Amino acid sequence: MSIYGDDLLPLNLERVSTYPLTSRPSKVSLNDFARPIEETSSIEDFLASLPNILGVQSLHSVAAQMRRAKQLGKPIIWGLGGHVIKVGLAPVIIDLMRRGFVTAIAANGAVLVHDAEIAKHSDAHW
Predict the structure, then answer these.
(1) What pTM, to 2 d.p., does this model score?
(2) Distance from C-alpha of 16 to C-alpha of 19, rounded to nearest angstrom
(3) In whole angstroms, how far apart are CA 39 and each of 33, 34, 44, 57, 101?
(4) What digits encode the pLDDT tens for the residues 86-104?
(5) CB atoms inside a 10 Å sphere around CB 105
(6) Residue 58 and residue 71: Cα distance in Å, rounded?
(7) What is the b/e burial string over 41-74, where b = at least 16 CB atoms within 10 angstroms of the residue's CB?
(8) For residues 27 and 111, what is the distance between their CA atoms, to the nearest angstrom?
(9) Are the beta carbons of 117 and 88 closer than 8 angstroms?
(10) Bridge partners, 80 (sequence order)
(11) Which of 65, 69, 89, 98 is the most buried (most CB within 10 A)?
(12) Under 8 Å between Cβ of 76 and 70
């Protein structure tokens, strides 16, 4: 008798089939893995060290489109939610604005609330 009750039976593995791992196609190979960077590396070096898959591909694509838009003198409009400000990314966004990578920001009310709260309760000057 099972400690889990009479209606819980062992798994039936008769119809389970296996195959070698080497025969399975994969989206990722060891060549895609991230590489450690040196202590003196730049942000460009860091981004280049990331695996060029999934979200990192999107990040590289967005960065390339932003560089292209800046070169063409086109506006770069960011859409933000409150967490971007809440977690402390305002100084980075301000720096990107100064460098011409943010022309305008479309934000929800939470952005304004978090920005006001941080401004009121800190002495940060970006």
Answers:
(1) 0.61
(2) 10
(3) 19, 16, 13, 24, 26
(4) 988 888 899 999 999 999 9
(5) 13
(6) 20
(7) eeeeeeeeebeeeeeeeeeeeeeeebeebeeeee
(8) 37
(9) no
(10) 107
(11) 69
(12) yes
CA 76 remoteness from chain centre: 19
Residue 18 pLDDT exceeds 60: yes
Residue 124 backbone zone (phi > 0: left; psi -120 to 50: alpha; other: beta): beta
Q: Let me know: does 46 contact 37? Beta carbons within 8 Å.
A: yes
Whether residue 3 is predicted with pLDDT greater than 60 in this model: the reply is: yes
Backbone angles phi, psi at 65, to 5 degrees: -65, -35
The ranges assigned to domains in the chain are: 38-74, 75-121
Tens digits of per-residue pLDDT, 55-76? 888 888 898 999 999 999 999 9
Collapsing DSSP to helix, strand or coil, 104 comes out as strand
In which residue are the tokens 């970006």 written? 126
Paired tokens of 113: 């609330």
Give the distance from CA 12 to its chain's centroid.
41
Q: Where are the beta strands (DSSP E) in 31-103?
A: 77-80
Phi, psi of 107 (to 5 degrees): -130, 155
